[in-house]
Amino acid sequence: MRLKAFQIFILDSITKARAEIIQKQNYFPLSAFTWNKKPPQPVKGILGENVTLEWTFSLASANERFDYFLLLRSGDDVIKYSDDVGKVTYTKFIGSVEMAKNGTPAFTLINLQQKDDNAEFCCKVGTKRTGASHGDVHKDCVTLKLLGKT
């Protein structure tokens, strides 16, 4: 029984070593995604006013393409954009958020309210590799701190 386990271990080690050699010979990064701009941490907003959260990113691979981006508030989907569908604002958030312009992850939170908007906001970006059925998700989060009106 020990010999069988040892043989399996050796075969597994050889398979892993071959995979590493193949990957080195045909090296390509798993994702060429880079965040270029993120909101400050924390974002400070004034009660009753608007605030804009903006992220920018780049893809440095011809084998990877943009799929969608999504703004979340405390884990809830707020607004989503994809080239295929365009902009979708989830019902609960209609009138409280706008996207600065289609195709750019810059979101304006409208008329900030203490109970709802003192929260964590995240931008999720989905990317897909050419020919892949699923892709990668990249996420960055910021905390919004509300200040009273002066």
What descriptive keywords fit this protein?
single chain, about 150 residues, alpha+beta, Immunoglobulin-like, six-stranded mixed sheet, three-stranded antiparallel sheet, 2 helices, 11 strands, about 20% helix, about 45% strand, elongated
Report on this structure.
This protein has 2 helices and 11 strands; from the N terminus they run αβββββββββαββ. With 150 residues, the protein is an alpha+beta fold. It has one domain (28-147): Immunoglobulins (Immunoglobulin-like), CATH 2.60.40.10. The strands form 3 sheets. The chain has a 6-stranded mixed β-sheet with strand order 2-11-10-5-6-7, with no helix packed on it. A hairpin with a 2-residue loop joins β5 and β6 (76-82). The protein starts with a helix and ends with a strand.
Layout of helices and strands:
Blueprint: H1 2-25, E1 33-37, E2 43-46, E3 51-54, E4 56-59, E5 64-73, E6 76-82, E7 86-89, E8 97-99, E9 106-109, H2 114-117, E10 120-129, E11 135-147
Parallel strand pairs: 2-11
Antiparallel strand pairs: 1-4, 3-9, 5-6, 5-10, 6-7, 8-9, 10-11
- Sheet of most strands: 6 strands, mixed
- Note the overall shape: elongated
Strand order within the widest beta sheet: 2-11-10-5-6-7
Classify the beta-strand content into a percent band: over 45%
